[in-house]
Write a structure and sequence with these properties.
The complex is a heterodimer of chains A (357) and B (366). Chain A is α/β, with parallel strands linked by helices and 357 residues long. Chain A folds into three domains: 184 residues, P-loop containing nucleotide triphosphate hydrolases (Rossmann fold, 3-Layer(aba) Sandwich); 49 residues; 99 residues, Up-down Bundle (Zinc Finger, Delta Prime, domain 3). Chain A is built from 15 helices and seven strands. Chain A has a seven-stranded mixed beta sheet. The longest helix of chain A has 24 residues. Chain B has 366 residues and is of the alpha/beta class. Chain B folds into three domains: 164 residues, 3-Layer(aba) Sandwich (Rossmann fold); 63 residues, Helicase, Ruva Protein, domain 3 (Orthogonal Bundle), CATH 1.10.8; 89 residues, Up-down Bundle (Zinc Finger, Delta Prime, domain 3), CATH 1.20.272.10. Helix content of chain B is 55%, strand content 7%. Chain B contains 17 helices and five strands. Chain B has a five-stranded parallel beta sheet. The chains are: A alpha/beta (357), B alpha/beta (366). At the A-B interface, helix 2, helix 4, helix 5, helix 6 and helix 7 of A face helix 1, helix 10, helix 13, helix 14 and helix 15 of B.
């Protein structure tokens, strides 16, 4: 079992950071009544962990007895949608965004059906039974607007029998009417110090001895304040070299190194040859299934420190511009390459302007 | 697991019922029941009351921002017309129902066709001989589905009234809009909302400080549902303690605290790009919704006195663009950084060299 899963806290009492949030969640679960909730925050901040701990607090250990169900549905337009549902006696977890363009159907039919069919009276008899059941909807920010609109009335009508817990990275992409029906709970990324503390704790539990402070800090920084990533990195470090040393290398994914290399190539020389080279590298990244927005963001992150302040403004602007193009367009390589070409042009023009050659 | 078995009997059901009333969200619990209970929409109420007394009702089109009482009003009207058994006389369809053109052609038409006699009257209510079809959130219906309604509305107007409820009247096709009596619902005034919230607070035993009330009213901005939800959340989440701060109220409704926006604003007014970048990263890491940050920046720009109008206009155009791109699905962190950099450039009036002037004035062809 991976350390990430093994050391995931299962109860609110065991939560590590965001103490005030934990205290408030405890207060919320006290009388066993939760309103609709919307958890938002960056990846690896512990949203899901907190949701499950909250459910455990409300329903008892029964929520951990989950089973995986694969269900197929037929839409009115004769499309078949496959959906994976993780369910316990008290809750169901659905990622409606999986259904792609059929997400509206999933919200209209599947969730409504769950909400309607649940029999509170029967569950009341069970240990930990409540008058309602919980549906966890993950990645709501990826749902289409129609699907989100379909949630509106459902949330109001069936509140008595069904509570929704929505989970997403970006609250901006959840439409206002849905947001205003939920209690919003922000889960911020843990600070570097909190990550270090947790890494230390895990290392001790795994009897790997004391983790050098410098190494812990470096892992925390490389992870981008993503706890999940930090723990995976720690485990990778452990496999690589044990006992730990302070100077030990923290392995970053090879595609990140590859993009860093690309950034160096772009600043070294601006020429058609380099553009061709860059295209090959971009293709290489794309064929390895690195999402294009991740490529663009990482490339920007690598490029920025190499630039003059004035140039930074422009490069950021064009990165934002082409990232949007990638999103609305359909051929990703065009826009990535356009960004690279634009960058080269800007860089060259800047160099000529400043140094006159 | 869901097996009920008759043996479990009525007691459990009764318990569940009692639970239900307890768990009801306050928004539902305190939904206005009669037309008289509707706050603030005086003109609408006056006109509708007249219609109820005479038992004549035109087709209706309610529009206005969220949480101003549109759905509540039509339900209250139905209740006043048909009495407690009003459910059988209305067909309520909202965005959570399939409302494609097929449903309009079949389900709506079917319901519109059948006649109700004036005989099944409930004593004390006018019970006019027609039914009401409520199309809630009608602006999410496709134009085709709306077009399919046109003739249906006219043909069965003797025995069926339609009520369209929507946020944006512009998204209702003209032929439909012109068949209805339009009612605009205004955002509620602070006084009216405060009175109502105080009443709910007293009934639920939730103490509300003046500071907290002001925060809730500002956050809700005329949206009664949001105000009540926030009040309930605050009560449940903070256990009714009076230590709740305006920032906490703002955060619960998906807003951002003042301090954060302020430090971002300060970072913008420094020359340092890296400083700005660090601050933007902080916003992203803390998980605040970028859209809310944009709205606050908008307020700050409007209120800023030391900046010429022309510069403000440039920033406004940038903000508008950023919002549109984020809705399109563009990366929030990049857009936020871009717009903040734009503000930095514009406000500092940095004279930029020819090649770089492009940066600000580029029209985005979408």
């Amino acid at each position: 079992m991976l350390w990430v899963d093994k050391h995931r806290p299962t109860t609110l009492a065991k939560m590590d950071y965001h103490e005030d949030l934990t205290a408030r969640l405890e207060a919320l679960s006290e009388d066993g009544e939760v309103p609709h909730l919307l958890f938002y925050g960056p990846p690896g901040a512990g949203k899901k962990t907190r949701i499950m701990a909250l459910l455990r607090q409300v329903f008892g250990a029964g929520v951990e007895k989950t089973r995986l169900e694969h269900k197929t549905f037929k839409t009115p337009t004769k499309r078949t949608i496959e959906l994976t549902i993780l369910a316990s006696a008290f809750h169901q977890e659905i990622n409606a965004a999986e259904a792609g363009s059929g997400d509206r159907f999933v919200v209209q039919e599947v969730i409504k059906e769950i909400a309607q069919s649940y029999n509170p009276a029967a569950a009341m008899g069970q240990a930990g039974g409540r008058a309602y059941k919980v549906v966890i909807l993950t990645e709501v920010d990826r749902l289409s607007r129609q699907a989100q609109a379909a949630l509106r009335r459902t949330m109001e009508k069936y509140t008595a029998a069904c509570r929704l817990i929505l989970c997403c990275n970006s609250a901006s992409r959840v439409i206002e009417p849905v947001r205003s029906r939920c209690l919003g709970i922000r889960v911020a990324a843990p600070s570097h110090e909190s990550i270090c503390a947790i890494l230390n704790k895990v290392s001790k539990k795994e009897s790997c001895g004391v983790l050098p402070e410098a190494l812990a800090m470096r892992i925390a920084q490389t992870s981008g304040r993503n706890l999940r990533r930090a723990l995976l990195m720690l485990e990778a470090c452990r496999v690589q070299q044990h006992p730990f040393t302070a100077e030990q290398e923290v392995k970053v994914p090879d595609w990140e190194e590859y993009i860093a290399k690309l950034a160096v190539l772009l600043t070294e020389e601006q020429s058609p040859q380099r553009l061709v080279l860059a295209r090959d590298m971009l293709y290489e990244l794309l064929t390895n299934c690195i999402p294009s927005d991740v490529i663009l963001k990482t490339l920007l992150r690598e490029l920025l420190p190499k630039l003059d302040d004035q140039l930074k403004h422009e490069v950021v602007h064009w990165a934002a511009f082409y990232e949007h193009r990638v999103r609305v367009g359909s051929k990703e390589i065009f826009h990535l390459e356009a960004f690279v070409a634009k960058f080269m042009a800007l860089y060259k023009a800047f160099v000529i302007n400043t140094f006159g050659f | 697991m869901f097996g009920t078995g008759s043996g479990q009997g009525g007691k459990d059901v009764a318990v569940a019922k009692a639970q239900q009333t307890k768990v009801q969200p306050w928004v539902e619990k305190y939904r206005p029941q009669g037309v008289d209970d509707i706050s603030y929409q005086d003109e609408v109420v006056k006109t509708l009351k007249n219609a109820i007394q005479t038992g004549t009702l035109p087709h209706l089109l309610f529009y206005g921002p969220p949480g101003t009482g549109k759905t509540s009003t039509i339900l209250a009207v139905a209740r006043s017309l048909f009495g407690p058994e009003y459910r059988s006389r209305i067909l309520e369809l909202n965005a959570s129902d399939e409302r494609g053109i097929k449903v309009v052609r079949e389900k709506v038409k079917q319901f519109a066709q059948f006649t109700v006699t004036g005989l099944e009257k409930t004593a004390g209510y006018p019970c006019p001989p027609f039914k009401i079809i409520i199309l809630d959130e009608a602006d999410t219906m496709t134009t085709e589905a709306q077009a399919a309604l046109r003739r249906t509305m006219e043909t069965y107007s003797k025995i069926t009234r339609f009520c369209l409820v929507c946020n944006y009247v512009t998204r209702i096709i003209e032929p439909l809009a012109s068949r209805c009596a339009k009612f605009r619902f205004r955002p509620l005034s602070r006084e009216v909302m405060e009175a109502r919230l105080r009443a709910i607070g007293t009934a639920e035993g939730a103490s509300v400080t003046q500071e907290m009330m002001n925060a809730i009213l500002t956050v809700a901005d005329g949206d009664m549902r949001k105000a009540v939800t926030t009040l309930q959340s605050a009560h449940q989440f903070y256990g009714g303690s009076s230590s709740i701060t305006p920032d906490a109220v703002r955060e619960m409704s998906g807003g951002v605290p003042d301090g954060l926006v302020q430090s971002l604003w300060e970072a913008i007014s420094t020359q340092s790009f890296d400083n700005l970048k660090a601050q933007c990263d902080e916003v992203e890491m803390a998980g605040y919704p970028t859209m809310a940050v944009l709205h606050r920046l908008f307020d700050l720009v409007v209120a800023e006195e030391g900046v010429e109008d022309a510069k403000k206009a440039v920033v406004m155009a940038g903000l508008a663009r950023a919002e549109k791109l984020i809705i399109d699905g563009a990366s929030e962190s990049l857009q936020l950084l871009d717009i903040c950099a734009l503000m930095m450039r514009t406000f500092l009036g940095k004279n930029r060299s020819a090649g770089s002037g492009v940066c600000v004035s580029t029209p985005m062809v979408l």
